[in-house]
Each structure stands twice: as structure tokens, then as C-alpha cells.
Amino acid sequence: MLKKILAVGCLLLAAVSYAAVDVNKATQAELDGIKGIGPGTAAAIMIERKKGDFKDWADFENRVKGVKDKRAAKLSEAGLTVGGASYATKK
Predict the structure, then answer these.
(1) pLDDT digit string, tens, across residues 4-43
(2) How far is the C-alpha of 66 from the C-alpha of 32, rounded, in Å?
(3) DSSP letter string, the chain
(4) Cα(23)–Cα(13) distance, rounded to whole angstroms?
């Protein structure tokens, strides 16, 4: 019984730790917590967001210096979303 309780606890912890973070709603600290986003990028995102919400991933890539396809895909894998959407790689 204890093993089942621990297993359920671990699953819940894993689900909570991978909660998606929307770039349009996140605080600077939440953005900084995403793997691949440091304090400088988080600050740049906050500055750009003051100009208006990001419409989509393309808008995000155009407005945030240093974020292009490869990095956007990695940020999405780490849990970042734009308007609730994950990054879709271009074909």
C-alpha cells in the first residue's frame, strides 16, 4: 500500500513540475524557471510584453532577440507556451 501511495505521489509531483508556462501570463520569475531562459531573456520578454501580448510563436521569435526555430522548440519542450500553444516546427 505504501508503494502505491509513493508512486501516486511521484506521478503528481512530475505532473506539477511540468506545468506549462504561458509567455503572456508568466511572471519574470516563472519565465526564469524555464530551462533555457535566464534572467536576461526573461527581462527581455517582459519588456517586449509591455508593448503587447505575443500573438503566436512567430511573433515571439521576431520580438525576442536570440530566439529562433531551434531555441523556440527547446523552450516549448521545457514547458513554455505562447497563447497556450506549444511550438510547432516548420516543415
Answers:
(1) 676 655 444 444 445 799 999 999 999 999 999 999 999 9
(2) 15
(3) -HHHHHHHHHHHHHHHHT--EETTT--HHHHHTSTT--HHHHHHHHHHHHT----SHHHHHHHSTT--HHHHHHHHHTTEEBTTBPP----
(4) 22
Which whole-number Å values give the CA distances from 57 to 52, 60, 79, in the listed order?
14, 5, 13
Tens-digit pLDDT profile for residues 41-59: 999 999 999 999 999 999 9
Half-sphere exposure of 42 (CA within 13 A, CB side): 17
pLDDT in the model for residue 19: 73
Are the C-beta atoms of 84 and 21 separated by less than 8 Å?
no
Closest to 16 in 3D by CA, of 77, 76, 79:
79
